[in-house]
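Support request from a user on the community tier.

User writes: "When I paste my structure tokens into the form, the page sometimes reloads and wipes my input. The last time it worked, I copied everything first. Here is what I submitted, just in case something in the input itself triggers the reload:"
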């Protein structure tokens, strides 16, 4: 199955491990990705708060580049997914805002008819690749590991993934079980991590993060999995401040959904970009040893 691939800015910078793990597992899952040429920033939250027309026009340009290639556009980043899904909705409304976005595109020599289907990677993994194939490709089952599924807010709201309820999704739980791990459920799995509030209003962001950490600690998870690159970085920072936020130290690896699948495939942590994680090497080594119990450990 072939898709146009929109990495978004983060996959080339703070979320390089996410992209590395995605590209590592795609061949075994029958996914062919063709990176969208000349893509630009999707105009996510920060731009949208300053200039709505600019933000929507940035996202619309990417869709204009994708149009006519007869391929769905897939992205691992929930913010990018949200930005481009929002553009499709705005342009379909045909109001004054849509007119301004079309005018901005035309000024740059582009046009967009609204025909591109934008999809988040998590939905593609469940709906297109399928849970059964993920099970088949699991050569190092993660038996004995308790994995907390942390969705964050943008991948489930306001545009919920196919087959998932916004407040009670199941996609990641299905993937966790397919890898042989045990789901460690916790109440805050769809709560916002605070994201950019960590920089703009740190006391508010950290309070939000503390509640999520409490839920993860109560679930007695061994590691956390997320489909969101921003959540991964934000939660890793919260983990580093866990003693201050919780009154106790909590340090667990936080991996992306593609890294989790790659681990179950027996791929080396370095090939999956897990070596880029902020988690202490001792934490990563312990997880690696547990995966490799009874076999040879992958190199960290």
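"...and here is what came back when it finally went through:"
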């Amino acid at each position: 199955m072939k898709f146009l691939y929109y990495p978004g800015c983060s996959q080339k910078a703070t979320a390089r491990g996410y992209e590395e793990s995605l590209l590592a597992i795609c061949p075994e899952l029958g996914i062919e990705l063709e990176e969208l040429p000349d893509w630009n920033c999707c105009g996510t939250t920060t731009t949208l708060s300053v200039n709505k027309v600019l933000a929507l026009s940035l996202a619309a340009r990417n869709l204009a580049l994708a149009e006519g290639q007869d391929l769905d556009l897939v992205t691992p980043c929930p913010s990018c997914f949200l930005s481009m899904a929002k553009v499709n909705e705005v342009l379909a409304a045909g109001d004054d805002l849509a007119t301004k976005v079309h005018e901005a595109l035309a000024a740059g020599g582009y046009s967009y008819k609204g025909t591109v289907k934008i999809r988040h990677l998590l939905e593609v993994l469940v709906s297109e690749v399928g849970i059964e194939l993920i099970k088949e490709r699991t050569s190092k089952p993660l038996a004995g590991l308790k994995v907390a599924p942390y969705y964050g807010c943008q991948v489930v709201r306001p545009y919920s993934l196919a087959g998932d309820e916004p407040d009670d999704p199941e996609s990641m739980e299905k993937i966790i079980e397919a890898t042989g791990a045990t789901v460690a459920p916790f109440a805050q799995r769809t709560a916002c991590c605070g994201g950019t509030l960590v920089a703009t209003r740190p006391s508010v962001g950290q309070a939000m993060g503390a509640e999520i950490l409490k839920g993860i600690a109560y679930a007695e998870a061994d590691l956390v999995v997320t489909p969101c690159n921003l959540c991964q970085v934000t939660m890793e920072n919260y983990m580093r401040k866990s003693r201050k936020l919780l009154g106790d130290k909590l340090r667990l690896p936080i991996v992306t959904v593609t890294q989790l699948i790659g681990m179950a495939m027996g791929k080396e942590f370095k090939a999956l970009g897990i070596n880029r994680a902020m988690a202490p090497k001792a934490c990563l080594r312990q997880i690696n040893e547990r995966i490799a119990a009874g076999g040879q450990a992958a190199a960290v």
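Agent notes: The reload is a front-end session timeout and is unrelated to the input. The chain has 15 helices and eight strands. The chain has a mean pLDDT of 91. Escalated to web team.
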